[in-house]
Write a structure and sequence with these properties.
8-stranded parallel barrel; binds phosphoenolpyruvate; Glucose Oxidase, domain 1; 12% strand; 8-stranded mixed sheet; 48% helix; binds magnesium ion; TIM Barrel; Enzyme I, Chain A, domain 2
Amino acid sequence: MSHTDRLLVGIGVSPGVVIGPAVVVQLALPEVPHRVVARKAVNREVARLRGAVKAVRSYLERMRERAARRAGAEEAKIFDAQILMLEDEEVLGAVERLIRENQLSAERAYEFKALELRALWSSNTKLRDRVADLSGVHFRVLQQLLGLPVDWIPEGLGSQPAIVFTPELTPGLTVQFDRPHVAGFVAEQGTRTSHAAILAHSLGIPCVMGLVGSLGRVHPGTTVILDGTRGTVLLDPTADEIAEAQALDRRRIALDRELERAVGQPAVTIDGVRLTLRGNVDLPEELEAAAQHGAEGVGLLRTEFMIVGRSELPGEDEQVGYYARVGERFPAHPVIVRSYDLGGDKFPLAVAPEPEANPFLGWRALRVCLDRPEIFRGQIRAVLRARARANVQLMIPMVTQVEEIVRTREMIAEAMDELQREGRPAARDLPLGVMVETPAAVVMIDRIAEVSDFLSVGTNDLTQYTLVVDRGNARLADRFTPLHPAIVRLLKATADAAQRAGKEVSVCGEMASEPVPAVLLVGLGYRVLSTSPPRLPLVRWLVRQIDVGRATRAAEAALEARTTGEVQTLLQEAVAEQVDLRLLDAGRLPRARPETSLKR
Ligand code: PEP
Ligand code: MG
């Protein structure tokens, strides 16, 4: 088989290269027999359910202690979240009703509810991160109810450090299997922000997730190379491939040393141009990483996690608390709160939309906020109140019409008046930013700049909507690139319009987190980049190696290019004059899934 046939590409969630034999751990929910119980036995079933919950609680407490010892107190809290899921009275009450009203056995009733919840959470982008936590809890409860040992060790985990392949990595599995038995994890499901990913990262165990179909491709015992930085798994490597992987890992270690040297240094190019580097924060857990990596504020504070999957909208006070906490963490810098980017596939339970044929071209983001002012008003009020405590600003996504910005401004003015009437401390001014992430926004950029205080380019959606390439479609991954000449021209038009209007413009899409594309942005005139927190050290180091003159010449040539290949070559040549590209290759994002972490 060729190298390509043996190479599986997923999402690298915990960096490092490891080589070892594959062990398959199936954490499928156990087979639950169909069993109806006699009416007089229902109390006993309910008692069995409560007993199982208690036993699983003690297992999770043990895992929490182990995580605290090995990974840290913050990571151990992941198990508190699992305990909350386990003891959720809404769920347990529903299971109890199924037992009492339908005379189902405890395991049957529990499984019924577990499958329902799983389906609900899986279909929701933000909750998908927590599906593995949920499955871990359900699995243990069912195991307990079915009388299977809770603390089992899978076959094949022996003396040699193995690479564990599993459909879904749960937090429990991640801390239960100690090194030296486990060298790395591979999961078919999962995301960079799942709890198991965070734990694997803290424990320093290389891990790749999202490798759909990998279990069917790997035979237990075969040697594999797991590259947790690139997010790849190579089956049956040759001696040469093993040597190459080891060399790449050495380069990565060298790159890490370089990055460490740049820690605490400003992002200044060698010809003296100062850039501002901010962090993108999706979840509260990422805040500390952004601060520790020297983010100069938050260029994109995503807020969907606050409402997706919850049955109630978050209260205003809860939002004020979060926005102000983030703002106070960066006292000298702005924190840009993005209004709910709902829709597509992210919807809160409280706003169940009609099914749409094309949700990504449908009722989403700012459209939802403007059509449902009761949702938007609370968020605007919360930002205004948080702004009384810190430099919090507001940014609106998916803008296609100037009217949307005008209407948002009206709503801000109304909210300010309301808050004043109520006598609450709140800001009387609020910078309003617009995300430039649709072709329409770029075409209208001069008019949009007139009514905005700042602009921020969302290259993920701008690329998706301009090139007509679904950003999540692995099959089209090669076509999903911001180095397409059309995107280069849109980026240039946006930078120029912002400059003419005297408005700040930044880039908060993933493009700013990728080394070579980031150099193009600098060459096109962007001076503010907002990257995912783990990418900050790499981007800072890179900025300190390049000069703007050279980047500008490369960008000018790219504007004349006809193909993506030409743009790529031009940039690579320009960067190679100042940086060892092999080092950058060590920090390159895997092309198929632009989500990885470089942090060791
Ligand atoms: C973008 O589209 O580039 C962006 C930053 O927003 P999101 O990834 O949240 O859609
Ligand atoms: Mg977007």
